[in-house]
From TrEMBL:
Domain of life: Eukaryota
Disordered: annotated span: 26-69, 115-143
Organism of this sequence: Paspalum notatum var. saurae
Alphabetized PANTHER family for the sequence: ABSCISIC ACID STRESS RIPENING1, ABSCISIC STRESS-RIPENING PROTEIN 5
A Pfam family of this chain: ABA_WDS
Ranges annotated as biased composition (Low complexity): 29-44
Family matches, as InterPro entries: ABA_WDS (IPR003496)
Name recorded for this polypeptide: Uncharacterized protein
Protein family according to the UniProt entry: Belongs to the abscisic acid and water stress-induced protein family.
Length: 143
């Protein structure tokens, strides 16, 4: 029993375990032929629907991060504007930091806007994939 090896599955088989045909090529050399199988994975509509729903969730998360970034940068810009008035000795520095924070807020808001549209696109694609899979159209009355 210790000498016997049991192979489970399709891979890691030795050639001595398989029957191999011997044939002669043009040059008189022996050639070995073996049988190989190819499996093809076909995606269904449910898989596409789940993929689009996952992407929609990721875009929603990123949209919220962009909104949070815009809020934080906007608050910091207002703080620096207040500091510029409060500390006239370093007012120029505070005005520069205010402008940088305002630019970051605009950029973060733009990112949130972009992610919102990506989320809408994935939501539409998910509904189309569900319709192709044969599912009924869902009405979202409460959410």
């Amino acid at each position: 029993m210790a000498e016997e090896k049991h192979h489970h599955g399709l891979f890691h088989h030795h050639k001595k375990d398989e029957e191999v045909e011997q044939a002669t090529a043009y040059g008189g050399e022996a050639t070995e032929y073996s049988e190989t199988t190819v499996t093809e994975v076909v995606s269904t509509g449910e898989d596409e629907y789940e993929k689009y729903k996952k992407e929609e969730k990721e875009h929603k998360h990123r949209e919220h991060l962009g909104e949070s970034g815009a809020l934080a940068a906007g608050a910091f810009a207002l703080y620096e504007k207040h500091e510029a008035k409060k500390d006239p000795e370093h007012a120029h520095r505070h005005k520069i930091e205010e402008e940088v924070a305002a630019a970051a807020a605009v950029g973060s808001g733009g990112f949130a806007f972009h992610e919102h549209h990506e989320k809408k696109k994935d939501h539409k694609d998910a509904e189309e994939a569900e319709a192709e899979a044969g599912g009924e159209k869902k009405h979202h009355f409460f959410g």
